[in-house]
Design a protein that fits this description.
Elements: E1 2-4, E2 8-10, E3 17-21, H1 25-28, H2 46-50, E4 58-62, H3 71-85, H4 92-114, H5 119-136, E5 147-151, H6 158-166, E6 184-190, E7 193-199, H7 210-217, H8 230-254, E8 257-263, H9 270-282, E9 287-293, H10 298-306, E10 315-317, H11 326-335, E11 355-360, H12 366-374, E12 392-397, E13 403-408, H13 415-421, H14 424-438, E14 442-448, H15 455-467, E15 470-476, H16 488-499, E16 508-510, H17 520-533, H18 539-552, E17 566-573, E18 578-583, H19 591-605, E19 613-618, H20 619-634, E20 636-639, E21 642-645
Parallel strand pairs: 5-7, 5-8, 8-9, 9-10, 11-13, 11-14, 14-15, 15-16, 18-19
Antiparallel strand pairs: 1-2, 3-4, 6-7, 12-13, 17-18, 20-21
Helix pairs in contact: 7-8, 18-19
Biased composition (Basic and acidic residues): 114-128
GO biological process, one term: ribosome biogenesis
Pfam families: KH_dom-like, MMR_HSR1
Length: 647
Amino acid sequence: MSSVGGGELLFTKPLTLSCIPKVSPFFSSFSSPPIRSFSPPFLSVSFLSSISTSSLPLRCYAASSPSETEGEDFLDAEEEDIESDEEYAFDPDALELEAKHAVREYSASLSHQLKLEDEASDQKDSSRKQKRSKSTTRNIPDHLLPRVAIVGRPNVGKSALFNRLVGGNRAIVVDEPGVTRDRLYGRSFWGEYEFMVVDTGGVLTLSKTQANYSEELAVSTTIGMDGIPRASREAALARMPSMIERQATAAVEEASVILFVVDGQAGLTAADVEIVDWLRKNYSSKSIILAVNKCESPRKGIMQASEFWSLGFSPLPISALSGTGTGELLDLVCSGLQKIEGPEHRDEIEIYVPAIAIVGRPNVGKSSILNALLGEDRTIVSPISGTTRDAIDTEFTGPDGQKFRLIDTAGIRRRAAIASLGSATEALSVNRAFRAIRRSDVVALVIEAMACITEQDCRIAERIEKEGKGCLIVVNKWDTIPNKNQQTATYYEQDVREKLRSLQWAPIVYSTAIAGHGVEKITVAASTVENERSRRLSTAILNQVVQEAIAFKPPPRTRGGRRGRVYYCTQAAIRPPTFVFFVNDSKLFPETYRRYMEKQLRSDAGFAGTPIRLLWRSRRKLEKDEGKATRLQANIAPRGGKLALAT
């Protein structure tokens, strides 16, 4: 292989993949012509595409061209291996099925390793909810559904009721106040009605002192606030209640029905009275439902709810945890909603909307990026570490009309730091962030420009790669870099590539979220990454790339003279692109050679911004599996019209 002209590659020897149909002596003596030139990733495959392999069993072997320096010993060993390989016959269709089976096995094993302890129950709830809604809902877009806002003072069970209505464990529920801060949306339905439920943070009154703020919101002014002056900490803490109330007000403004939740066990409080006065004064035109939560006993619930008649609304005793009274509550909710008709063309295929998860360490600007993309204060931005708790899902339409689902997440701390905090909420927030990575398509890993890349950033990067998600690296707060010039970005990228080795393939975007500079590049890069992640190579082109890589650098030989051979290669899956190599023995392909093959696939076929997986299937394993299947089938005999094991 030599370089010719304008960077094209000239091959002076035939392809190293020899595919010979067993039924025709004409094809057995046919040799493939040399490939003239190609411009990656669009390769010349006229020879491979001219032979139909869909119906003919093939016997294929990879014959690496020996170098002139290896002499006669090399040729003898090669001929001995070829003789044994020529007897290996297979059907391409069967190998395609085997490749899909290998991908399923690998995915199941990897998912088991990465599964969180409480994820199984959540998946059951969500899957049950999806099955139920599939036959009931009418694929109405989220922005067209009526809103139902849940409001109340802190720690009355708003998030528990939210989880009960939408199904699953979308919101963090902990027996401590101030857990929910941002608006959290979820779809729900009851009968023929479908609507969006909005969870909000606890509404605090302005009469409270700063000490009460800290207690109600469970905010620490010391942990995670290193480098921030004391005055700035106190100012940020003082602004927090008003920011939470602003989020709750936004939810109430867009809602058709307001669920005002109170605590039946704690009884009527002054804060409840102030919230009712606020609702009656500003939103008397909306449907307001008073739900008395934590009434697990129906008999005691009536007594507990009677205290709240003085608020001027009919109290309804419910229990968000056990579900008591939620049916009557949903009847009242639907009575205040307008029924939304579904689209005229129900058979229309729903457009796939990729999800972008924004992850990173605390205080790197994740929420600022989300707000800058949306053009509104969708989430609370504060120098207080750990402001974001839940994973916030938001629909977004880019300038080109491409729709995305943005997921803002909590800052991912080290396990040791979480243990030192001793907060269950912090641990749950990190778990939610990891789950956001799992249910996303593309992950935007945000790092701070002036901060060093830490070990925690590397661990997050490794998790993204293991999950098989597309990724782009967002260098936020780029304006803080002093004395920038044309080479600054180049040197910075080299440093990032060196430290985040597991994301060598990820594109890098520079932004300043506070000023709104460069944030539009994030969605453009994410769209490109998703396209690459969903791309599929034809089998002919893939085998062309693989065999050219083998011709350029054959697998290393063992001390016994054996060399690895590739019989067939196919792309068995997308998202992420997964390639299955059928070889004589996978042990003959060391990790260094597998990395070389991945590098060649990327250089010749692209796949920027997405991890690719290479699975290696040994011929011995395939023959062993076929032998087991044959023996099992031979041991099965019919008895009385049924299949039974022969004794």
